[in-house]
Amino acid sequence: MSALLFVMALLAGATLPTQAGINSGLQAHWAGSPVLASLVSFSVGTAALVCWCLVTRTAPAVPVPGTTQWWHWTGGLLGAFFVSAVTFLAPRLGATTMVALILAGQVAASVLLDHFGVLGYQARSVNLPRFAGLVMVGAGVYLIRRF
């Protein structure tokens, strides 16, 4: 893996607890609701992406019926749930526990998505090392939550 991709992934991971803290602060001091704070977050993000598309002259594709599956349009719903959930959870669980639990959910879902080769992922069977990694993530969640 290229070092740039590795660093980019680490930086993307670092945005999770940072964004959750920012949105939780917005919720506590202005919005009063994790959903409203998430709406503000998505609105700012949408504005940033519109600007990026204008600057890079990225033209939006016009949806043509039959060119994609209906569920390809649900990513935004998942993002809305995720951002609202972390906005709600961050002050209640703390950054470390929240991220550990999210990581465990991500790894478990990823193992299943890979195993069944769905959503465009190449099939990669669950084997002993992958299962052991999943168990270790679970053990990490336990240790973080316990101590």
Secondary-structure blueprint of this entry?
Elements: H1 3-31, H2 34-55, H3 75-93, H4 95-116, H5 128-146
Helix pairs in contact: 1-2, 1-3, 1-4, 2-3, 3-4, 4-5
SSE string, helix = H, strand = E?
HHHHH
Question: Oligomerization state of this entry?
Answer: single chain
Mean pLDDT: 92
Tertiary shape: globular
Distance between the termini: 34 Å
Helical amount among residues, as a percent range? over 70%
Count, helices = 5
Strand percentage lies at under 5%
Helix-and-strand structural type: mainly alpha
Number of strands: 0
Low-confidence stretches: none
The biggest beta sheet is recorded as: none
Report Rg: 18 Å
Describe, in plain words, how this protein is organized in 3D.
It is a single chain. With 147 residues, this protein is an all-alpha fold. It has five helices and no strands. It has helices at 3-31, 34-55, 75-93, 95-116, 128-146. α1 crosses α2 (34-55), α1 (3-31) crosses α3 (75-93) and α1 packs across α4 (95-116). The longest helix has 29 residues, at 3-31. It is globular. The mean pLDDT is 92.
